[in-house]
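Submission sheet (multi-component)
Chains listed below:
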Amino acid sequence: MNMDDGDMNTALMVDGNAVAGQLMDVFGRDMTMAVARCAGCAREAEMGALMAFTHSPGVVLRCPACQAAIARIVETPSAIYIEARGATFLRLPR
Amino acid sequence: MAQPVLEWQAGTVTEIRPETRQTKSFTLALPKWMAHRAGMHYDVRLTAPDGYQTERSYSVASAPERVGVVELTVERIEDGEVSPYLHDVVVTGDQIEVRGPIGGYFVWEVALGGPLLLIGGGSGVVPLMAMLRHRAAQHATVPVRILYSTRTPDDVIYRQELDSLAAGDRGFEAFFTFTRLAPPGWTGYRRRIDAAMLGEVIKPFGTRARVYVCGPTLLVEAVASALVPMGLPIEQIRTERFGPTGV
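Outcome: structure written.
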């Protein structure tokens, strides 16, 4: 990752672990050890290890290898939207 | 593994301890306490009279061996929504709405073994302290080193406890680096964490080290990108970035 490009997003980035509470609201369990496979580069990573951007009106989770958007979560007063086209699958440990 | 759904609960503040100018530790007694794993966090939720709610996550500083309570060490962020309230308004006996423990990714427990290298920037030391307290409570002999970066010596959280842990335990060593102001006569590090510093601190552990890095995002990025070329398997590196706060 280029650290010298003045990209504010890099400084604002946190880990998927930081949105563990919100993921728990959505899925009803701890998702940080669930594995997501990136549809772009096939890298598998724990959701806790994804790059998380939380300063937009929703949460964007990106692949730590290729930075493609794996999932977006947006909450409105009446519903929660989850768009996860960037994930081939999520694997939840039993 | 079946997991109970965590509910919000009202914790009672039983102790508030100033740590540094910018940080305080809050001990909360929880009616529905659950043992956490060192490194996990709690979400804190504030509700305004008009119903507006805001949440922040704070790492648990206490060891899971302290039953019935959690200690959260909170840095006061000047333009924050939650931390100024906790610092300036909350007093002992108040109730605070919390949910946890959360986050099974950035955790260490004695059974995971070591050797363990903990790297913290600023208040990023908090979850690492939970790991050290857990290790001490278990009388574990896993070799551990901590490399802790702050602006000045006054910004070091848990300084006395780190020094006394290190004094009584040959398996634990603490290294400090001060990025702005070092005390007179200081012979230790006085710069941001870089590859040379990491190389020195990790040397006795080599590529067997399990590494936990927590701090401002740019510090974590710098550390993680310096560790990978040293040949550390990526599964042995766990990171927790908490955003743009500078160190």
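Remark: The first strand of chain A starts at residue 14 and ends at 15.
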